[in-house]
Amino acid sequence: FDMIQPQTGLSESDVKKIVKQVASALDFMHSESLVHRDVKPENILVFEQGFHRVKLMDFGMTRKEGTLIRKVNGSIPYTPPEICEALRNENITVTTGGDVWAFAVLLFCMMTGNFPWENAETSDVYYTEFVNWQRRKTTKTPSQWKKFTPRMMRIFRKMLEPKVERRCDIKEIYKYLNDTWTRPTKESDAEEESCSTDSDHMDQLTSILQNHGIETHIDKRLRERRISEWLLAL
């Protein structure tokens, strides 16, 4: 599947054609309790120019959902965290969630021409950045994902849920096929500049307040203690 241009990817309209067909294939497999386990661009066969007819192929790793397998060394960007985190030779249960994760990484690759990370492990900076956003530890869009609309980021959040039991089904993508997935380039740049400016303003404001002896952080325990002392003094 060498049609994906590095650093660029495919057009949104072409990606949607592919997504609809591959998701349909995976949805059918999952309804039969089958897990493909090797979703990646190399396993998508293009029959017609314009991506009007593509097929998911290579079912050599397909297993029944619930099957126990052993982890072997190595992982690729499509490998979900539940497998990356497992120890070598540890038993792993095959789930449809693994396909959903790989499908989301595939979607990112087709849209950008890049991988979102090398491995879904905390040692990977880009993965950690995404997980912090995914878990709402920050509202700042991860650096690799700024081209996507909020609506698109919502489905990525669902498909790339680190906890496999919370990950959505593959059919969830159908709800987003009619949405706009990418921002205009100028809008993405403006958002990045705005975030930077807002951060600078906040730092300046914090510095001014601190210089005047005004607390900028709320200590809940201290506040509760002061309230208690005030009540006792009444």
Automatic annotation (TrEMBL):
Q: Which domain of life is it from?
A: Eukaryota
Mind listing the GO molecular function terms for this protein? ATP binding; protein serine/threonine kinase activity
Where the record annotates domain Protein kinase, the positions are: 1-182
SMART domains in the record: S_TKc
Annotated protein name in UniProt = Protein kinase domain-containing protein
Species in which this protein is naturally found: Magallana gigas
